[in-house]
Amino acid sequence: MTVQDFQNLALNNNLPEIDFTGLQSMGYPFGSRLNGFNAALGFDLYNKSGVQPWGKPILRLGLSFMNSDLNSLNYYRQDRYAYDTLYTTFQGNTSAFPVDSVAYQYKSISSSANRLRVNASVLWRTNPEKRWSFYTGIGLGIGVSLSSKINVYDYQGSSLEYQSSYGTSSMQGIY
To answer: Structural domain boundaries of the chain?
Structure first.
């Protein structure tokens, strides 16, 4: 999905303007469909004289529900600046650890929705009495979205980080 796709999903196109200038994409857009079910009933069709036409057509009526259709776009930026230097002396050896000021920004747009759909189709099969057969058909489906949401996140924060022989240490703040 693109930002325009999210704008098209928003009710009355009132998604706030989001500026991604200077931000990098965090990979490919994410999308998933987590849970769902599909149930259908099939009915044999007969003509007025009670005989099934060629291929023994079946009328299939179904109901589908997909839980949590989720899509998102994620962008970030991180800027590092030299801040200070820590000095430590142990048993006569002095070590210097540069301290960086790190500013970061994260922006994300995500949408989620549950989908309910009813569908109907007519299917024709070759050799319906056999274990394997080919089929073709025509169908129609209509659905609605339930509990639809679009979330826009904008995080900004900073931290002080330094490398030592024990790894990276940091103090963070989010605003």
So the answer is: 3-174
